[in-house]
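Every protein is a chain of amino acids, and every chain bends into a shape of its own. Below is the pair of lines this work produces for a single protein:
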Amino acid sequence: MTDDPADTLDTATTDPGTLVGRIDRDETIELLQELVRIRSPYFEEEAITEFVYDWLDSRGHDPEYHPVSEPDITGFEGNNVLARLAGTDPDAPTLLLNAHMDTVEIVEAWDEDPLSGRIEDGKLYGQGACDMKGGLAGIMVAFDVLAATDVDLAGDLLFSAVVDEEGPYGLGANQLVRDEITDECDAAIVTEPGPILAQTTIENPALLLGARGRFLYDITVTGEAAHGSQPQKGTNAVVDAGRLADALAAMDVGTHEKLGDGSVCPIEIEGGGETLSVPESCRLLADRHVVIGETEDVVRADAERVVADLDLDSDVQIDFRDAPAPDVRYGPYVTDADDPLVNALSSGVETVTDDDPAIGYFSSVGDFNYFGHRADLPTVIVGPDGENIHGAGEFVHTDDVVAVARIVTAGCVSLLG
């Protein structure tokens, strides 16, 4: 990768080993540092969106802004960045390369500049360095090398850098689905950090072939107000919500041979607050990570059964978090280990590392659920590893970032070449 690769990478090749050799380690890490130094919490991605667009544009890759809009709940307006490398065969598959540009809000516990991009002992530090600017740098470099080299790919390669993955609804990826862009695609690679969020302990090089899904219970508990000096005359909604939260956390959930067990985690109880009053109402939010087979009806019925078993004095209304549309949810998925995409990436891993990849499954949710479940695309996560994601001291292993760029490049050639 160079500042003007179109002038230097003009030798035709479909050899993955030759192509990965054109990915410069130092320049890849410099790009990552630039990305980390841009503050980009979800809903505030304007600066990094412009950077990614300009970076691709300066290399002659004809990027475009893809508008993202959600007026009803968040009022969000923003842009994804897309770029396409056209293949030679209209019947060949189209491959989506995806990464998100946003981070969580910068946490206060950092004892250094959270946007420094400092490198020490092979680790690059900064909020979002691992989740997922390392993966973003990886697909930017991979796309750049493939587009700047005279490679006759049969199928199209679609680059997508999206907004709001860390936000409540994954609005950037949702817009790709809503605008039927994913309908043009046959498979997807997402460069989220892999091993750190796998269901089991694995190390890179690794391919994650599926993920659990998620519902968010939004439960209203309604009791009866009374004077706080005589609590026996009322029904305390906060107390009953606490009992319900404890029971939900302990309830039986589904299991899957690949995705492992589901889980329930109460995350918020809000209610009461009146001086010397028994709380009349309370709101309980609980995360429910699900596996294949745990549908919305199943998840609702499970909670209703827990409520019935508790026989609370309060009334309980079980709902789910509001969403922009009924289909905007994170469904679980598994990609077949024999899928051509998996074989192509396994070949890429072998080309880059001389190893076979570890195989794992993601424990949480992200844009990959929209591709693997809603869009029904074979979807594989291949990303760098690190530590402290979403927290102070977040870092990514720099060698992993370079390896991901090279594995993705080799995998693309293997699948589309």
About this structure: The longest helix spans residues 129-148. The domain at 5-212+332-416 is CATH 3.40.630.10 (Aminopeptidase).
